[in-house]
Write a structure and sequence with these properties.
Blueprint (H helix, E strand, L loop, with lengths): L6 E6 L5 E7 L5 H14 L11 H9 L7 E6 L2 E10 L9 E8 L8 H15 L4 E7 L3 H9 L3 E12 L2 E11 L4
Parallel strand pairs: 5-6
Antiparallel strand pairs: 1-2, 2-3, 3-4, 4-5, 6-8, 7-8
Helix pairs in contact: 1-2
């Protein structure tokens, strides 16, 4: 199966059987990616980013992702319900084997295992694209995210104290990593 092909996951218990499909995002998915990302901004537990992003902002972000830095989406029927991306960690070539993770699940789908499926697939693609490690930065208040990262085998590297502002107050940021490929 090529890295761009959709992968079917399921069953999931919602009114009987629900099957999520995970595939490579296309430019047509940017409005959905934007909506889900903005939910993360509004909820104040997933990112320090503000203000809300426009589709134009997110299209620039999306267009900056080449083949090596995939953006994937999860769908439930015709609805986009989550997304994940690998992002460059640094412009320095010494860090070419390290990717930074972004993962966001639509508000009404959180806590039902979709994050696990997205993480499984983005980790698989990280290996396919020659990455050795994935790193992530998460707000310490994001307990659900922390449990997901722990379940996926990420280890805590440390906590940046008062790293950025959220609603006018400095907050801590958790740093985690996972080796995905032995070289």
């Amino acid at each position: 199966m090529s890295s761009g092909a959709g992968r079917i996951f399921g069953p999931r218990a919602i009114n009987c059987f629900t099957v999520f499909s995970i595939r490579t995002a296309t430019p047509a998915d940017v409005p959905h990616i934007t909506h889900i990302y903005n939910q993360g901004i509004e909820d104040g537990i997933a990112t320090l980013e503000y203000p809300l992003k426009s589709e134009g902002d997110m299209r620039v972000w999306f267009d900056d992702h080449g083949e090596r830095y995939p953006v994937i989406i999860a769908t439930w029927g015709d609805e986009v319900v989550g997304w994940a991306a690998l992002n460059p960690y640094s412009h320095r070539c010494a860090y070419d084997g390290v990717a930074d993770l972004s993962i966001y699940v639509r508000r009404d789908q959180r806590g039902d295992g979709l994050g696990q499926l997205l993480m499984q697939e983005i980790e698989r693609r990280a290996v396919l694209h020659g990455f050795h490690k994935i790193v992530l930065f998460a707000l310490t208040a994001n307990g659900d995210g922390r449990r997901l990262y722990d379940r996926r085998g990420f280890r805590e590297v440390g906590i940046f104290r008062e790293q950025g502002k959220l609603n006018g107050k400095y907050v801590d940021v958790l740093v985690m990593e996972k080796l995905v490929k032995n070289t």
